[in-house]
């Protein structure tokens, strides 16, 4: 009953409601039908897949159940780089109205492309994500995701337009102006990275603007890992419901999965367009539901860039437990980090987002931080740079006490020994988009 009520809030999306509440056996049948077609097309039209399937000795015709997908080889980011720029595309370049690219920290960027239908599906899925987050067609959407080659800006933009919202395409940066326009226009929904939302909240406070009194109601935050502590902080400072949204350019962009505002517990992955698996990143074997491992995604409808078993490197678990919102699509539990972001400090595995959950809300500490990695003889050492809260005492003794306190909490909650440096307000760099959480000085 409660679930039905929640979904009835958005009557314009009757079609999506039917898809999103489809009984799971029916959903699986739809997935198999789409999977067979896309695997066949990938094999026929993309030389890379022909080569890798042949090398693994599998044929698209062997796909008679969803479980058969496990026989097929994985696709990795390096495959996109090796086929730079356009060789992974399954359609001629002149059928692509748009390409995006992710800069990547090393080597060539990863280039992705979309047909007209791909762009249409993306807008639909982003609109579905906005509805799931609690947005409605009447809303003003302040879109502070970066516009450009990054998929965040244009992805959220076209989804919000598709839903019928009024979009403010402000992109990232110029934070004071962002605050002014959010107030003047009466933004209902904020789309940004969580770290940039924090920057906006802080600048608003410095400007003496109380965003909690503004119409702002919902934040769709993603593109980087963030903690529940950060969620609580953003909700309190902005007076909103903070919703986690996930996506990656290789698969589409934002809107691959999104939390619902009803449960705020795991992100519904849109299973009519994607097939989700988790694998053990060491053995590469599929894991059962509920086990934590690497997320692997297969696109079911992408025309330009079919991705078969794409290894995301993102660490999570999957759940098909019924959700209070009534949606039947599985939930991807909060992505705590990527396996390549995992730090090993004196034998202890630690993700930056774990450090974040200790720091955010810590008395006397502002929620801004950076992790500095250095080499201490043969071992990696970690220094956490934090910032004293603007209203906390700043004499040497107080700062030393704070540093000791934070060190102790990190040790007891995460199990890792680190050094903590307490900096003055404003000294830790603020994010304009994806935050740089780790400064690696190990080879300096
Ligand atoms: O970050 C797409 C996006 C834009 C998602 C806006 C959500 C909102 P990429 O630049 O290709 O695409 O980076 C994708 O970012 O593999 C994850 O490691 C990370 N990531 C994205 N969303 C989340 C999230 C966009 N909600 C990479 N939680 C992914 C944790 C996330 N990590």
TrEMBL record:
The lineage of its organism: Bacteria, Pseudomonadati, Pseudomonadota, Alphaproteobacteria, Hyphomicrobiales. InterPro entries: Adenylate-forming_Reductase (IPR051414), AMP-bd_C_sf (IPR045851), AMP-dep_Lig_C (IPR028154), AMP-dep_synth/lig_dom (IPR000873), ANL_N_sf (IPR042099), PA_CoA_ligase (IPR011880). This is Phenylacetate-coenzyme A ligase. GO terms for biological process: phenylacetate catabolic process. Residues 347-442 form the AMP-dependent ligase C-terminal domain. It catalyses: 2-phenylacetate + ATP + CoA = phenylacetyl-CoA + AMP + diphosphate. Its EC number is 6.2.1.30. PANTHER family: PHENYLACETATE-COENZYME A LIGASE. It holds the Pfam family AMP-binding.
């Amino acid at each position: 009953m409660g679930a039905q009520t929640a979904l009835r809030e958005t009557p314009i999306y009757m079609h999506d409601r039917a898809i999103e509440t489809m009984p799971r056996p029916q959903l699986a049948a739809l997935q198999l039908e789409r999977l067979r077609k896309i695997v066949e097309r990938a094999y026929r039209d993309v030389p890379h897949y022909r080569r890798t399937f042949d090398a693994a000795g599998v044929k698209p015709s062997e796909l008679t159940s969803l479980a058969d997908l496990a026989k097929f080889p994985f696709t990795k980011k390096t495959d996109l780089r090796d086929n730079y720029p356009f060789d992974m595309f399954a359609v001629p370049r002149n059928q692509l109205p748009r390409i995006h690219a992710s800069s990547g920290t090393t080597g060539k960027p990863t280039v992705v492309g979309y047909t007209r239908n791909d762009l249409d599906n993306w807008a639909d899925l982003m609109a579905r994500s906005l509805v799931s987050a609690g947005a409605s067609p009447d809303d003003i959407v302040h879109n502070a995701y970066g516009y450009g080659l990054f998929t965040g800006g244009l992805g959220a933009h076209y989804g919000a337009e598709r839903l019928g919202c009024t979009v403010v395409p402000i992109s990232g940066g110029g934070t004071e102006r962002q605050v002014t326009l959010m107030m003047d226009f009466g933004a209902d929904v904020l789309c940004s990275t969580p770290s940039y939302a924090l920057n906006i909240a802080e600048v608003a406070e410095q400007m003496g603007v109380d965003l909690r009194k503004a119409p702002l109601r919902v934040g769709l935050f993603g593109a980087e890992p963030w903690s529940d502590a950060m969620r609580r902080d953003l909700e309190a400072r902005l007076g909103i419901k903070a919703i986690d949204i996930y996506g990656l350019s290789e698969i589409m962009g934002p809107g691959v999965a999104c939390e619902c505002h009803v449960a705020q517990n795991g992100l519904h992955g849109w299973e009519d367009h994607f097939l989700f698996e988790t694998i053990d990143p060491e053995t590469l074997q599929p894991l059962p539901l509920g086990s934590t491992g690497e997320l692997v995604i297969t696109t079911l409808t992408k025309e330009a860039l079919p991705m078969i078993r794409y290894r995301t490197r993102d660490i999570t678990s999957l759940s098909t437990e019924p959700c209070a919102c009534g949606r039947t699509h599985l939930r991807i539990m909060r992505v705590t980090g990527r396996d390549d972001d995992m730090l090993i400090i004196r034998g202890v595995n630690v993700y930056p987002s774990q450090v974040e959950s200790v720091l955010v809300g810590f008395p006397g500490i502002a929620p801004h931080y950076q992790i500095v990695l250095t080499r201490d003889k043969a071992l990696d050492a970690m220094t956490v740079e934090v910032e004293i809260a603007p209203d906390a005492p700043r004499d040497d003794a107080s700062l030393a006490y704070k540093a000791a306190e934070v060190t102790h909490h990190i040790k007891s909650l995460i199990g890792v020994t680190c050094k903590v440096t307490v900096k003055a307000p404003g000294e830790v760099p603020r994010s304009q988009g994806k935050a740089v959480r780790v400064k690696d000085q190990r080879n300096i």
